Amino acid sequence: QLRDNTVIVVFGASGDLAKKKTYPALFGLYCNGYLPRDVHIVGYARTKMDDKEYQKRTTAYIKNPNDDPEIAAKIEEFKKISTYVSGGYEDSPSFQNLAKHLQSIEKNYPSREANRLFYLALPPSVFVPVATHTKECCYSSMGINRIIVEKPFGKDLDSCRELLSSLKQSWKEEETYRIDHYLGKEMVKNLLVLRFANVALGAAAWDKNSISNVQISFKEPFGTQGRGGYFDEFGIIRDVLQNHLLQVLSILTMERPVSFSSEDIRDEKVKVLRAIPPITKEDVLLGQYVAGNNEPGYLDDDTVPKDSVCPTFAATVLRINNERWEGVPFILKAGKALNEAKVEIRMQFKDVTQGIFKNISRNELVIRIQPSEAVYLKLNSKTPGYSFRAFPTEMDLTYKRRFTDTKIPEAYEALILDALKGDHSNFVRDDELDVAWKIFTPILHWIDGRAGPRPRPSPYPYGSRGPKELDSFIEKQGLVNKDAL
Ligand code: BG6
Fold first, then answer.
1. Domain of life, per the record (predicted)?
2. What gap in Å lies between CA 464 and CA 484, rounded to an integer?
């Protein structure tokens, strides 16, 4: 349930994440009437500025391409509920000052109830001090308090555990909402329905007897875009694979939960992740983009060290050692500066028994997460007419053709709304993080050079499909169709 009398505090309000994602999402919810009654939004950051300047900055990324007067009016209303406080992240007096500001808003509420949602759009170095000071100085005694945190949750198993235990000293698990924004994407949410509301897709064919292999790919057509400093510390595995793609994999492969409650869903996700052994170096291909197609290479980014061996591309094979999935390779691939923008799941079915048909394509179920959400099943059908030849065709549910008038919410909108309602289903539980890091920590330590010299990623030109070794890497797994590469 949405609680009236809620203040949303955005820490890091002048940063990139807040401007590009948090505020447009808050506005989207506001515009569609999904924020609580009497909501207020308080931005907080170090930068000194007045409310006007803050309102200008935070609405700069809100889109109104056709100058729709209704949206323009909503933007003006939205500005009126937004105020700003500047202060440091590591000192109590700044947070006491914020607390005073919150009280001055709440004293005008019609009842004494005062709920607070704190959103940390911040670099990891200040997660702990901000969470601690917020609890000490800004915790409401008159309502519900919740805190949203964003990745990165550490850099490996140990640092994640350390971070989580520091945060837990001030915030309880049920008050904490760890965002992995892929869990807010429409198609990722659809996985539960596709799998568990369909016998044909879920119960009957969703296992090693029918599925030959699964590929989950993330392709971005741009490089680090000025985020090189952050990126170089983390690399593509920590940035995308270990969180976003692994989350998708866990929902795709988990057993049917007892119910759709957040705990039941997350119990099943943890169970399947626990069946995945840590990745070894034989199971990974690393790449780094170089200049190509008139675009600069990774090392040309001024914020990246000139001798960096940080991977901007990785492909890896995961195995799930349980009865359902034993022997099926799960290929996870993610890369920046590739030839297209695409995130999709491709489940390739086994060959039909040879004999009657020769050389026909395998069935494939493709779930395109973005762009242009779609689910389609590739199958073989008889060529119409006198011949008895099979031809490959598709049963296609492309959202923009089927749902012409439906607005699909942005991932951040969906997740902020869930947090306001107190629904944890699409947030990451502490034990999920623990198992996810266990799978990736050994390989990350190898990449970081803890076990000898750092491995050199294979170069690939900006705008290409990835390193040239990709095809042979995939072929090793016995794939026939390379469409998804
Ligand atoms: C973020 C990564 O978590 O996800 C970025 O840090 C990446 O590097 C982004 O670009 C991708 O998100 P989306 O929603 O654009 O697919």
1. Eukaryota
2. 14
- For residue 433, which of 148, 128, 152, 240 has the smallest C-alpha distance? 152
239 Cβ closer than 6 Å to some ligand 1 atom: yes
Q: Whose CA is nearest to atom 15 of ligand 1?
A: 220
Regarding the beta carbon of 180 and ligand 1, being less than 6 Å apart is answered no
Which positions ≥6 away from 420 have C-beta within 8 Å? 2, 3, 6, 35, 36, 117
User: What would the pLDDT profile of 279-311 be if each residue is shown by its tens digit?
Assistant: 999 999 999 999 999 999 999 999 999 999 999
Inter-residue contact 391 to 378 (CB < 8 Å): no
Q: Where do we find the tokens 């890369």?
A: 335
Q: Whose CA is nearest to atom 9 of ligand 1?
A: 240
Q: Which amino acid is at 41?
A: I
Give the Å distance between the CA of 143 and the centre of ligand 1.
34
Contact 130, 22 (CB under 8 A): no
pLDDT per position as a tens digit, 417-449: 999 999 999 999 999 999 999 999 999 999 999
Using the atom order of ligand 1, give the atom closest to the CA of residue 218.
Answer: 16
CA 291 remoteness from chain centre: 28
Number of the ligand 1 atom closest to the C-alpha atom of 244: 3
For residue 186, CA distances in Å to 192, 374, 375 come to 11, 10, 12
| Residue 146, token pair as written in the block | 């919740």
DSSP 77-146: HHHHTEEEEE--SS-HHHHHHHHHHHHHHHTTSSSS--EEEEEE-S-GGGHHHHHHHHHHHH--SSS-EE
ipTM of the complex: 0.98
Q: Output the DSSP codes for 229-296.
A: HHHHHHHHIIIIIIIIIHHHHHHHHSPPPSSSSHHHHHHHHHHHHHTSPPP-GGGEEEEEEE-BTTB-
Backbone φ/ψ region at 123: left (φ over 0), alpha (ψ -120 to 50), beta: beta
CB 161 within 8 A of CB 154: yes
The mean-pLDDT minimum among 142-146, 180-184, 481-485 falls in: 481-485
- Predicted confidence band at 480 (pLDDT cuts at 50, 70, 90)? low
Instruction: Please state the pTM of the whole predicted model.
Output: 0.95
**Token digits of residue 120:** 């940390």
Active site residue 101: no
Structure tokens at 232: 């170089």
The Cα–Cα gap between 310 and 222 comes to 16
User: Residue 247's closest CA among 310, 293, 178?
Assistant: 178
